[in-house]
Amino acid sequence: MYRQTHRITLTAAVLALLPLAAACGSEQPGSRPAGAGVGSLTGVHWAVDGVTVDGTRHDAPAGAYVTIDDSGRARGNFGCNHFSARASFDGDRVRLADASVTEMGCEDKPMKFEQTLARTLADGPLKADMDKNRLTLTTDGGDTVRLSKEQDAPLLGTRWNVTALGADGVARSLPQDAEAHLTFAEDGASGKVTGRLGCNKVSATATVRDGNITLGRPSTTRMMCEASLMDTEKRLLRLFGGTVEYRIDHRTLTLTSENGESVTAVAAK
User: Fold this and answer.
1) Where are the domains of the chain?
2) Would the pTM of this model clear 0.90, i.e. be above it?
3) Which pLDDT band, with edges at 50, 70 and 90, does 188 fall under?
4) Mean pLDDT of 216-236
5) Which CATH architecture does the domain made up of 159-267 adopt?
6) Are 267 and 174 in contact (CB under 8 A)?
7) Is the CB of residue 16 less than 8 Å from the CB of residue 22?
8) pLDDT (tens digit per residue) in 7-33
9) Predicted local distance difference test score (pLDDT) of residue 175
């Protein structure tokens, strides 16, 4: 049942995202690559706070963001899927074009937000208004995307909320009621990790060295939860008792085990 629903949801989401590549079109005459006179807009990790469409506010799920580099390449996450696009500026307006989007399926709530955000970003040139660390992008019809500047998150001392599990190159979001998070102690050389795995609390030794984390045998509480949460916990437990590679992209942490299984987590705000 879940796989069938997942497939249907994914198809709908991909169809909804296609307008970002088509509707944005090509650069208009007089437009400039990002970085030409746009100052502090570029080179910043802009976390998406929410989107307002037709007067209705939609709050963003954790991990939705947009960045634009000085060469005019925009990258980000719609709330589930990652995207890249070409950005150009004309005065105080920004336009995204030639987008490519990943094809990962998530729960209904982030997928619905993703469709709303993608359509809004595709709605022609967007007027950019900055107020200190906040950015608002506004369509000609008055719909808005609200963003705020975020700093990079350190591995140690940050609560990392798990958002997706991956295997065989396919990532899936956690069940809606799953609460999974990890925090690595400040002393990473001979520290520990604590957190929750979806149902039970966990603690273990954690040694950080050269882009890897060696996790000891886990100690957990012994509660029982519904099947989907226990399945999430079982998969997360496979990280322990071995070494995982870690990678941080601003506020997103990816852990990859020796057998190729992965965990994606975002820094708590």
Assistant:
1) 2-149, 159-267
2) no
3) low
4) 96
5) Beta Barrel (2.40)
6) no
7) no
8) 323 333 443 444 444 444 444 433 444
9) 85
- The residue count of the chain comes to 269
Name beta bridge partners: 96. 87
Find, among 41, 22, 136, 138, the residue nearest to 88 by Cα.
41
Q: How does residue 38 score in pLDDT terms, banded at 50, 70 and 90?
A: low
- Residue 261 falls in which region: left (phi positive, over 0), alpha (psi -120 to 50) or beta: beta
- Sequence-ordered list of residues with C-beta below 8 angstroms from that of 264, at least 6 positions apart, any chain: 162, 163, 164, 165, 166, 171, 252, 253, 254
CA-to-CA distance for 78 and 60, rounded, in angstroms? 9
Per the CB < 8 A criterion, the answer to whether 216 and 206 are in contact is yes
Signed CA dihedral, 20, 23, 29, 30: sign only: negative
Are both 2-149 and 159-267 of the same fold? yes
At the top level of CATH, which class does the domain 2-149 belong to? mainly beta
What percent of the chain is predicted at pLDDT more than 90?
57
94 and 34 in contact (C-beta within 8 Å)?
yes
